[in-house]
Every structure is written in structure tokens, then in C-alpha cells.
Amino acid sequence: MKIAFIAHDRKKEEMVNFVIAYEHVFEGQELFSTGTTGSRIMENTDLKIHRFMSGPLGGDQQIGALVAQNEMDLIVFLRDPLMAQPHEPDINALLRLCDVQGIPLATNIATAEILVKALDRGDFAWRELVHKYKPTSDEV
């Protein structure tokens, strides 16, 4: 499973604590993150994460490119709804791409826990089918 972590500044500590709590679930998965969030997670866990640029510098769009190609299976994006973000158009584009591709996306800790518990139970087997039977551009 390919899983991405993104967290706004005031949500980074919450993300780190979340990943620590479910580190056993994330072991063995292919993990991605925006820059600082990924660094903070790696500093506090034994997980290896492919880090993209910081969100405002294009990291959200780099993850969005994987989503557009249906190459991402789950995204945990802890957003700060009380703080305006300078790269809001990039964030909205990522959220829209997740809707278009049917990628499970958690934007708060409650939804993130539900999705990770489902992952731990093996409820994401349907994503393997999506990858196995991915239509070619001629079939779309």
C-alpha cells in the first residue's frame, strides 16, 4: 500500500503522535510525505518515508501527481481549518483528485483512525484489484 502523510504546521505534532500510535500498521507499507512532516515522523519512528517538497513549495502537487495516476492508496492529510493557507488552490486540487480517483482521504484524526484500523484489518484489498485491473488509456 502506498500511503501519504501531510500535515499543516499546527497539526504536525498530532500527525507524529498518530503515526507513532500506529507505527506497527505502517511498517512494510510504502510511505510518502511532504517535507517537514516526513522529517518529523522519521525523527520519531523507525519508518522510512519518501519525502517530497514542502506543501507550499509543491509537495501537495507532487503527491497529487501520484493520485492522478492512481498510484496512491491512502492519504492522511491533517488540515488546520482555522488557518488560511497560502497554497489553498494546491490543497483543493489534491482533495478534488482524491475524489476523482476514489482515493481514501482523512482530513482529521477521527477519520484517519477509522481508515488505519480498516487497513490493519485488511479491508483495503479492493485497492489491489484497482492496481491489477487498471485500464489503459485506450480503454478509458
From TrEMBL:
Instruction: Give all residue intervals belonging to the MGS-like domain.
Output: 1-140
Q: Per its UniProt entry, what is the enzyme's top EC class, as one word?
A: lyase
Under Gene3D superfamilies, the record lists: Methylglyoxal synthase-like domain
What is catalysed by this protein?
dihydroxyacetone phosphate = methylglyoxal + phosphate
**Known SUPFAM superfamilies for this protein?**
Methylglyoxal synthase-like (SSF52335)
Which regions form coiled coils? none
Q: Where does substrate bind?
A: H8, K12, T34, G35, T36, T37, S54, G55, H87
* Native organism: Paenibacillus crassostreae
Task: Name the EC number(s).
Answer: 4.2.3.3
The name on file for this protein is: Methylglyoxal synthase
- Recite the UniProt keywords alphabetically: Lyase
Q: Where is the active site?
A: D60 (proton donor/acceptor)
**One Pfam family here:** MGS
The record describes the protein's role as: Catalyzes the formation of methylglyoxal from dihydroxyacetone phosphate.
Question: Would you kindly state one Gene Ontology biological process term found in this protein's UniProt entry?
Answer: methylglyoxal biosynthetic process
What family name appears in the similarity comment?
Belongs to the methylglyoxal synthase family.
**Gene Ontology molecular function terms on file:** methylglyoxal synthase activity
User: InterPro entries from the entry?
Assistant: Methylgl_synth, Methylglyoxal_synth_AS, MGS-like_dom, MGS-like_dom_sf
